[in-house]
Design goal:
Number of strands: 0
Largest sheet: none
Strand content: under 5%
Radius of gyration: 16 Å
Number of helices: 6
Distance between the termini: 22 Å
Shape: elongated
Order of helices and strands: HHHHHH
Helix content: 55-70%
């Protein structure tokens, strides 16, 4: 939801999943089915393996913390191929990182 800037109610409509189901997922009361994991992966751009791992359908996958965000870089290249060059994308990534560090400090 954060990646798309959507509220739970908007995501439920986009994915045709009940609002109550999403709230149970967010509250940890239930986990998405494998079919729902597929929908969520396509919707968010997060690899299916990560959703299946987080929901407990497959063993946890160890993740190295990336030094940059290829998902943002790929999104920016696809969405704004003529408007954003590599320098601007790098600058935006740096701003995102600063914001994340500031938010984690509190």
């Amino acid at each position: 939801m954060r990646r798309r800037g959507r509220l739970p109610s908007q995501m439920t409509k986009d994915l045709r999943i009940s609002h109550a189901t999403v709230i149970r997922w967010l509250n940890g009361e239930s986990i998405p089915s494998t079919r729902s994991c597929q929908k969520l992966a396509r919707y968010s751009g997060v690899p299916l393996q990560k959703f299946l791992s987080l929901s407990g359908h497959v063993p946890a996958v160890s993740e190295a913390i990336p030094t940059e965000w290829p998902e943002f870089r790929e999104y920016a290249r696809n969405k704004y191929p003529d408007e954003l060059d590599e320098d601007l994308i790098t600058m935006i990534e740096a701003l995102i990182e600063r914001r994340r560090q500031r938010n984690h400090a509190f």
